[in-house]
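Task card 7
Instruction: Convert sequence to C-alpha coordinates.
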Amino acid sequence: MKKFFKKTLCIVLAIIMASAVTVTGFATGTNHTLKFDENGDFTILHLTDWHTAYPLPEIHKQYVMEALVASTPDLVVLGGDMSEASTEDYPAAVKEICDLFIEAETPFAITFGNHDYLHGITIDDMFALYKEYGGEYFLSKDEKPELFGCGTCSLSVYSNDGNRVAYEIYCFDSGCEVEGKGYESVHSDQIEWYRNRSEELKNANGGEYVPSVVFQHIIVQEIFDKLFPVAKENDTENVEVFDGIAYKMKAIPNLSNIKDGYLLEKPCPGYYNYGQLDAMSENGDVRAMFFGHDHSNSFTVGIDGVDIVNTPSVRTHSGFKIINWGGRVITLHEDGTYESEVLAGYELADDKNSEIVDVGGVSRFEIIFTKIWKAFAKVSLVFWNLATKVFYDF
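Output:
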Protein backbone atom coordinates (compact mmCIF):
# COMPACT_ATOMS: atom_id res chain seq x y z
CA MET A 1 0.00 0.00 0.00
CA LYS A 2 2.84 2.39 0.86
CA LYS A 3 4.48 1.62 -2.48
CA PHE A 4 1.18 2.34 -4.23
CA PHE A 5 0.78 5.75 -2.54
CA LYS A 6 4.44 6.58 -3.14
CA LYS A 7 4.15 5.65 -6.81
CA THR A 8 0.90 7.63 -7.16
CA LEU A 9 2.45 10.67 -5.47
CA CYS A 10 5.40 10.55 -7.85
CA ILE A 11 3.08 10.42 -10.85
CA VAL A 12 1.02 13.37 -9.56
CA LEU A 13 4.17 15.43 -8.90
CA ALA A 14 5.49 14.56 -12.35
CA ILE A 15 2.24 15.74 -13.95
CA ILE A 16 2.30 18.98 -11.94
CA MET A 17 5.92 19.64 -12.87
CA ALA A 18 5.27 18.88 -16.54
CA SER A 19 2.27 21.22 -16.52
CA ALA A 20 4.32 23.97 -14.90
CA VAL A 21 7.04 23.58 -17.53
CA THR A 22 4.45 23.65 -20.33
CA VAL A 23 2.68 26.73 -18.99
CA THR A 24 5.95 28.53 -18.31
CA GLY A 25 7.26 27.68 -21.77
CA PHE A 26 4.05 28.87 -23.42
CA ALA A 27 4.05 32.13 -21.45
CA THR A 28 7.64 32.80 -22.46
CA GLY A 29 6.97 31.90 -26.09
CA THR A 30 4.03 34.28 -26.37
CA ASN A 31 5.58 37.20 -24.51
CA HIS A 32 5.26 39.83 -27.24
CA THR A 33 4.83 42.89 -25.06
CA LEU A 34 5.20 45.89 -27.35
CA LYS A 35 7.48 48.56 -25.93
CA PHE A 36 9.75 51.39 -26.96
CA ASP A 37 13.46 50.70 -27.28
CA GLU A 38 16.17 52.46 -25.32
CA ASN A 39 16.19 55.27 -27.91
CA GLY A 40 12.48 55.88 -27.42
CA ASP A 41 11.53 54.44 -30.83
CA PHE A 42 9.02 51.83 -31.96
CA THR A 43 8.97 50.77 -35.63
CA ILE A 44 5.95 49.55 -37.61
CA LEU A 45 6.08 48.16 -41.14
CA HIS A 46 2.77 48.70 -42.95
CA LEU A 47 2.26 46.20 -45.80
CA THR A 48 -1.03 46.42 -47.64
CA ASP A 49 -2.90 45.33 -50.77
CA TRP A 50 -0.85 42.30 -51.74
CA HIS A 51 -3.58 40.91 -54.06
CA THR A 52 -1.40 37.87 -54.60
CA ALA A 53 -1.97 34.53 -56.22
CA TYR A 54 -1.20 31.26 -54.46
CA PRO A 55 1.59 30.30 -54.11
CA LEU A 56 3.03 33.75 -53.42
CA PRO A 57 4.91 35.24 -56.38
CA GLU A 58 8.62 35.28 -55.68
CA ILE A 59 8.86 39.05 -56.02
CA HIS A 60 6.30 39.52 -53.24
CA LYS A 61 8.13 37.17 -50.92
CA GLN A 62 11.49 38.69 -51.72
CA TYR A 63 10.26 42.25 -51.16
CA VAL A 64 8.70 41.36 -47.80
CA MET A 65 11.79 39.50 -46.61
CA GLU A 66 14.11 42.33 -47.61
CA ALA A 67 11.76 44.97 -46.16
CA LEU A 68 11.81 43.14 -42.84
CA VAL A 69 15.61 43.17 -42.83
CA ALA A 70 15.83 46.81 -43.92
CA SER A 71 13.32 48.18 -41.42
CA THR A 72 13.74 45.73 -38.50
CA PRO A 73 10.16 46.42 -37.36
CA ASP A 74 8.82 45.79 -33.88
CA LEU A 75 5.42 45.14 -35.46
CA VAL A 76 4.04 44.52 -38.95
CA VAL A 77 0.51 45.67 -39.77
CA LEU A 78 -1.07 44.00 -42.78
CA GLY A 79 -3.46 46.44 -44.42
CA GLY A 80 -5.91 44.03 -46.06
CA ASP A 81 -6.68 42.71 -49.56
CA MET A 82 -4.02 40.12 -49.03
CA SER A 83 -4.59 37.00 -51.14
CA GLU A 84 -6.59 36.31 -54.28
CA ALA A 85 -6.39 32.54 -53.77
CA SER A 86 -9.37 30.31 -54.49
CA THR A 87 -11.60 29.26 -51.60
CA GLU A 88 -10.00 25.81 -51.42
CA ASP A 89 -6.48 27.24 -51.46
CA TYR A 90 -7.16 30.05 -49.02
CA PRO A 91 -6.02 28.28 -45.82
CA ALA A 92 -2.70 27.39 -47.45
CA ALA A 93 -2.36 30.96 -48.77
CA VAL A 94 -2.87 32.42 -45.29
CA LYS A 95 -0.34 29.99 -43.85
CA GLU A 96 2.21 31.02 -46.47
CA ILE A 97 1.75 34.70 -45.55
CA CYS A 98 1.95 34.02 -41.81
CA ASP A 99 5.08 31.90 -42.23
CA LEU A 100 7.00 34.94 -43.50
CA PHE A 101 6.60 36.66 -40.14
CA ILE A 102 6.99 33.56 -38.03
CA GLU A 103 10.31 32.81 -39.72
CA ALA A 104 11.37 36.44 -39.14
CA GLU A 105 10.14 36.17 -35.52
CA THR A 106 8.19 39.41 -36.01
CA PRO A 107 4.78 40.06 -34.41
CA PHE A 108 2.05 41.11 -36.83
CA ALA A 109 -1.57 42.26 -36.92
CA ILE A 110 -4.15 42.73 -39.67
CA THR A 111 -6.90 45.10 -40.76
CA PHE A 112 -9.14 43.44 -43.35
CA GLY A 113 -9.85 44.99 -46.75
CA ASN A 114 -12.90 44.89 -48.99
CA HIS A 115 -11.47 42.12 -51.20
CA ASP A 116 -10.94 39.91 -48.17
CA TYR A 117 -14.72 39.59 -48.03
CA LEU A 118 -14.95 38.17 -51.56
CA HIS A 119 -13.36 34.73 -51.39
CA GLY A 120 -16.17 32.40 -50.38
CA ILE A 121 -15.01 32.36 -46.77
CA THR A 122 -16.48 34.44 -43.95
CA ILE A 123 -14.33 37.17 -42.46
CA ASP A 124 -14.61 35.46 -39.05
CA ASP A 125 -13.27 32.22 -40.51
CA MET A 126 -10.50 34.16 -42.23
CA PHE A 127 -9.53 35.75 -38.93
CA ALA A 128 -9.45 32.27 -37.37
CA LEU A 129 -7.03 31.13 -40.08
CA TYR A 130 -4.63 33.99 -39.33
CA LYS A 131 -4.92 33.23 -35.65
CA GLU A 132 -4.22 29.54 -36.21
CA TYR A 133 -1.30 29.92 -38.60
CA GLY A 134 0.13 33.09 -37.06
CA GLY A 135 0.25 31.49 -33.63
CA GLU A 136 2.00 33.49 -30.96
CA TYR A 137 3.15 36.12 -33.49
CA PHE A 138 -0.38 37.11 -34.54
CA LEU A 139 -1.40 39.87 -32.14
CA SER A 140 -4.78 40.92 -33.56
CA LYS A 141 -7.88 40.33 -31.48
CA ASP A 142 -11.55 40.47 -32.29
CA GLU A 143 -11.98 42.57 -29.18
CA LYS A 144 -15.77 42.81 -29.27
CA PRO A 145 -17.28 40.33 -31.76
CA GLU A 146 -20.56 42.23 -31.76
CA LEU A 147 -18.89 45.22 -33.44
CA PHE A 148 -19.17 45.73 -37.20
CA GLY A 149 -16.69 43.59 -39.13
CA CYS A 150 -13.99 41.51 -37.49
CA GLY A 151 -10.69 42.25 -35.81
CA THR A 152 -11.30 45.75 -34.48
CA CYS A 153 -8.87 46.05 -31.57
CA SER A 154 -6.12 48.11 -30.03
CA LEU A 155 -2.52 47.25 -29.16
CA SER A 156 -0.64 49.07 -26.43
CA VAL A 157 3.00 50.12 -26.80
CA TYR A 158 4.61 50.57 -23.40
CA SER A 159 7.30 53.02 -22.41
CA ASN A 160 10.85 51.70 -22.37
CA ASP A 161 10.70 51.24 -18.60
CA GLY A 162 7.39 49.36 -18.99
CA ASN A 163 5.57 51.57 -16.47
CA ARG A 164 2.91 53.10 -18.73
CA VAL A 165 1.16 52.88 -22.07
CA ALA A 166 3.06 55.42 -24.17
CA TYR A 167 1.27 54.87 -27.50
CA GLU A 168 -1.87 53.05 -28.63
CA ILE A 169 -2.33 51.36 -32.01
CA TYR A 170 -5.95 51.06 -33.20
CA CYS A 171 -6.92 48.55 -35.88
CA PHE A 172 -10.33 48.83 -37.56
CA ASP A 173 -12.18 46.66 -40.04
CA SER A 174 -13.65 49.08 -42.61
CA GLY A 175 -15.78 46.42 -44.29
CA CYS A 176 -16.54 45.76 -47.93
CA GLU A 177 -19.23 47.51 -49.97
CA VAL A 178 -22.52 49.38 -49.58
CA GLU A 179 -24.71 47.86 -52.29
CA GLY A 180 -25.34 50.26 -55.14
CA LYS A 181 -23.42 53.13 -53.52
CA GLY A 182 -19.75 52.40 -52.95
CA TYR A 183 -17.41 51.19 -50.25
CA GLU A 184 -18.07 50.60 -46.57
CA SER A 185 -16.72 52.67 -43.67
CA VAL A 186 -15.89 52.26 -40.02
CA HIS A 187 -19.28 52.14 -38.25
CA SER A 188 -20.75 54.02 -35.30
CA ASP A 189 -20.37 51.09 -32.88
CA GLN A 190 -16.63 50.88 -33.64
CA ILE A 191 -16.28 54.63 -33.12
CA GLU A 192 -18.04 54.37 -29.76
CA TRP A 193 -15.71 51.52 -28.82
CA TYR A 194 -12.74 53.76 -29.71
CA ARG A 195 -14.11 56.61 -27.57
CA ASN A 196 -14.45 54.28 -24.57
CA ARG A 197 -10.97 52.83 -25.02
CA SER A 198 -9.47 56.30 -25.46
CA GLU A 199 -11.10 57.51 -22.24
CA GLU A 200 -9.98 54.38 -20.38
CA LEU A 201 -6.38 55.03 -21.41
CA LYS A 202 -6.72 58.70 -20.49
CA ASN A 203 -7.92 57.87 -16.99
CA ALA A 204 -5.00 55.50 -16.48
CA ASN A 205 -2.60 58.15 -17.78
CA GLY A 206 -3.29 60.85 -15.23
CA GLY A 207 -5.99 62.55 -17.26
CA GLU A 208 -3.90 62.90 -20.44
CA TYR A 209 -4.92 61.23 -23.69
CA VAL A 210 -2.44 58.61 -24.90
CA PRO A 211 -0.89 59.37 -28.32
CA SER A 212 -2.31 56.99 -30.91
CA VAL A 213 -2.22 55.88 -34.52
CA VAL A 214 -4.94 54.16 -36.54
CA PHE A 215 -4.79 51.49 -39.23
CA GLN A 216 -7.64 50.52 -41.56
CA HIS A 217 -8.13 49.71 -45.23
CA ILE A 218 -10.61 52.23 -46.64
CA ILE A 219 -9.81 55.94 -46.37
CA VAL A 220 -12.14 58.47 -44.69
CA GLN A 221 -14.48 60.66 -46.74
CA GLU A 222 -12.87 63.91 -45.57
CA ILE A 223 -9.97 63.32 -47.95
CA PHE A 224 -12.24 64.70 -50.69
CA ASP A 225 -12.74 67.92 -48.71
CA LYS A 226 -9.03 68.59 -49.16
CA LEU A 227 -8.70 67.49 -52.79
CA PHE A 228 -11.90 68.52 -54.60
CA PRO A 229 -14.45 71.34 -54.35
CA VAL A 230 -18.09 70.76 -53.45
CA ALA A 231 -20.15 70.66 -56.67
CA LYS A 232 -22.39 73.58 -57.47
CA GLU A 233 -26.17 73.16 -57.55
CA ASN A 234 -27.44 71.43 -60.69
CA ASP A 235 -23.90 70.37 -61.63
CA THR A 236 -24.15 66.71 -62.60
CA GLU A 237 -21.09 66.07 -64.78
CA ASN A 238 -17.98 64.54 -63.21
CA VAL A 239 -19.57 64.54 -59.78
CA GLU A 240 -19.23 61.94 -57.04
CA VAL A 241 -21.55 61.80 -54.05
CA PHE A 242 -20.63 60.58 -50.58
CA ASP A 243 -23.30 60.56 -47.89
CA GLY A 244 -25.18 63.46 -49.43
CA ILE A 245 -22.14 65.61 -50.28
CA ALA A 246 -21.41 66.03 -53.99
CA TYR A 247 -17.81 66.68 -55.05
CA LYS A 248 -16.68 68.03 -58.41
CA MET A 249 -13.99 65.77 -59.88
CA LYS A 250 -11.53 68.27 -61.28
CA ALA A 251 -8.91 67.03 -63.72
CA ILE A 252 -6.22 68.08 -61.26
CA PRO A 253 -7.02 67.87 -57.53
CA ASN A 254 -5.80 70.42 -54.99
CA LEU A 255 -2.25 69.16 -54.67
CA SER A 256 -1.30 72.06 -52.41
CA ASN A 257 -2.93 70.24 -49.48
CA ILE A 258 -0.59 67.27 -49.79
CA LYS A 259 2.24 67.44 -47.24
CA ASP A 260 4.37 64.78 -48.92
CA GLY A 261 4.18 61.80 -51.22
CA TYR A 262 2.26 61.25 -54.43
CA LEU A 263 -1.37 61.15 -55.55
CA LEU A 264 -1.39 58.90 -58.61
CA GLU A 265 -5.02 57.79 -58.52
CA LYS A 266 -8.28 59.12 -57.17
CA PRO A 267 -8.87 58.03 -53.54
CA CYS A 268 -11.87 55.76 -52.93
CA PRO A 269 -13.38 56.53 -49.49
CA GLY A 270 -16.34 54.86 -47.84
CA TYR A 271 -19.76 56.09 -48.90
CA TYR A 272 -21.14 56.82 -45.43
CA ASN A 273 -19.42 59.04 -42.91
CA TYR A 274 -20.22 57.94 -39.35
CA GLY A 275 -17.99 60.59 -37.77
CA GLN A 276 -14.77 58.63 -37.22
CA LEU A 277 -12.36 61.45 -38.04
CA ASP A 278 -14.47 63.95 -36.06
CA ALA A 279 -14.27 61.75 -32.95
CA MET A 280 -10.51 61.34 -33.22
CA SER A 281 -9.91 65.00 -33.98
CA GLU A 282 -12.04 65.98 -31.00
CA ASN A 283 -9.99 63.85 -28.62
CA GLY A 284 -6.70 64.95 -30.10
CA ASP A 285 -5.00 61.65 -29.33
CA VAL A 286 -4.69 60.28 -32.87
CA ARG A 287 -1.56 61.52 -34.60
CA ALA A 288 -2.11 59.74 -37.90
CA MET A 289 -4.43 57.33 -39.70
CA PHE A 290 -2.86 54.89 -42.16
CA PHE A 291 -4.80 53.44 -45.09
CA GLY A 292 -4.30 51.15 -48.07
CA HIS A 293 -6.96 50.46 -50.72
CA ASP A 294 -5.72 53.04 -53.27
CA HIS A 295 -2.78 51.12 -54.62
CA SER A 296 -0.47 53.71 -56.11
CA ASN A 297 -1.00 56.58 -53.65
CA SER A 298 1.53 57.47 -50.97
CA PHE A 299 0.44 60.90 -49.76
CA THR A 300 0.09 62.57 -46.37
CA VAL A 301 -2.70 65.12 -45.93
CA GLY A 302 -3.40 66.90 -42.65
CA ILE A 303 -7.08 67.21 -41.70
CA ASP A 304 -8.26 68.73 -38.40
CA GLY A 305 -5.03 67.90 -36.60
CA VAL A 306 -4.82 64.31 -37.88
CA ASP A 307 -2.49 63.13 -40.66
CA ILE A 308 -4.31 61.07 -43.30
CA VAL A 309 -1.67 58.79 -44.80
CA ASN A 310 -1.95 56.39 -47.74
CA THR A 311 0.43 53.45 -48.02
CA PRO A 312 1.00 52.04 -51.52
CA SER A 313 0.42 48.45 -52.51
CA VAL A 314 3.02 45.72 -52.15
CA ARG A 315 1.90 44.58 -55.61
CA THR A 316 4.18 45.93 -58.34
CA HIS A 317 2.91 48.72 -60.61
CA SER A 318 3.76 49.51 -64.20
CA GLY A 319 4.70 52.74 -65.97
CA PHE A 320 5.25 55.87 -63.91
CA LYS A 321 3.29 54.36 -60.99
CA ILE A 322 6.24 52.06 -60.35
CA ILE A 323 7.66 54.76 -58.04
CA ASN A 324 4.97 53.82 -55.52
CA TRP A 325 4.94 50.10 -54.90
CA GLY A 326 6.21 48.74 -51.62
CA GLY A 327 5.36 49.45 -47.98
CA ARG A 328 5.65 52.16 -45.35
CA VAL A 329 7.97 52.35 -42.35
CA ILE A 330 6.42 54.22 -39.41
CA THR A 331 8.49 55.22 -36.41
CA LEU A 332 6.61 56.12 -33.25
CA HIS A 333 8.51 58.15 -30.68
CA GLU A 334 7.94 57.86 -26.96
CA ASP A 335 7.47 61.63 -26.76
CA GLY A 336 4.19 61.26 -28.70
CA THR A 337 5.44 62.21 -32.17
CA TYR A 338 5.87 59.98 -35.21
CA GLU A 339 7.43 59.94 -38.65
CA SER A 340 6.97 57.74 -41.71
CA GLU A 341 8.40 57.09 -45.13
CA VAL A 342 7.66 54.77 -48.04
CA LEU A 343 10.04 51.84 -48.44
CA ALA A 344 9.71 51.59 -52.20
CA GLY A 345 10.27 48.30 -53.96
CA TYR A 346 12.58 49.81 -56.55
CA GLU A 347 14.73 51.35 -53.79
CA LEU A 348 15.24 47.99 -52.17
CA ALA A 349 15.85 46.38 -55.57
CA ASP A 350 18.57 48.93 -56.29
CA ASP A 351 20.64 47.77 -53.32
CA LYS A 352 23.63 45.69 -54.40
CA ASN A 353 22.65 42.94 -51.95
CA SER A 354 19.03 42.75 -53.14
CA GLU A 355 17.69 39.69 -54.96
CA ILE A 356 14.47 41.37 -56.11
CA VAL A 357 15.70 41.75 -59.70
CA ASP A 358 17.02 38.17 -59.67
CA VAL A 359 13.62 36.66 -58.89
CA GLY A 360 11.99 38.59 -61.75
CA GLY A 361 9.22 41.17 -61.95
CA VAL A 362 11.51 44.22 -61.86
CA SER A 363 14.30 44.94 -64.31
CA ARG A 364 17.39 47.13 -64.05
CA PHE A 365 15.91 49.32 -66.79
CA GLU A 366 12.78 49.91 -64.68
CA ILE A 367 14.91 50.90 -61.70
CA ILE A 368 16.79 53.49 -63.79
CA PHE A 369 13.52 54.72 -65.31
CA THR A 370 12.00 55.06 -61.85
CA LYS A 371 14.92 57.12 -60.56
CA ILE A 372 14.61 59.53 -63.49
CA TRP A 373 10.83 59.75 -63.19
CA LYS A 374 10.93 60.34 -59.44
CA ALA A 375 13.52 63.11 -59.83
CA PHE A 376 11.29 64.76 -62.43
CA ALA A 377 8.18 64.32 -60.27
CA LYS A 378 9.89 65.85 -57.24
CA VAL A 379 10.74 69.01 -59.15
CA SER A 380 7.44 69.28 -61.04
CA LEU A 381 5.33 68.83 -57.91
CA VAL A 382 6.60 72.15 -56.58
CA PHE A 383 5.01 73.83 -59.59
CA TRP A 384 1.76 71.84 -59.43
CA ASN A 385 1.35 72.47 -55.71
CA LEU A 386 1.71 76.21 -56.24
CA ALA A 387 -0.52 76.21 -59.32
CA THR A 388 -3.37 74.30 -57.69
CA LYS A 389 -3.19 76.48 -54.58
CA VAL A 390 -3.71 79.59 -56.70
CA PHE A 391 -6.40 77.88 -58.78
CA TYR A 392 -8.43 76.58 -55.81
CA ASP A 393 -8.05 79.81 -53.82
CA PHE A 394 -9.83 81.62 -56.63
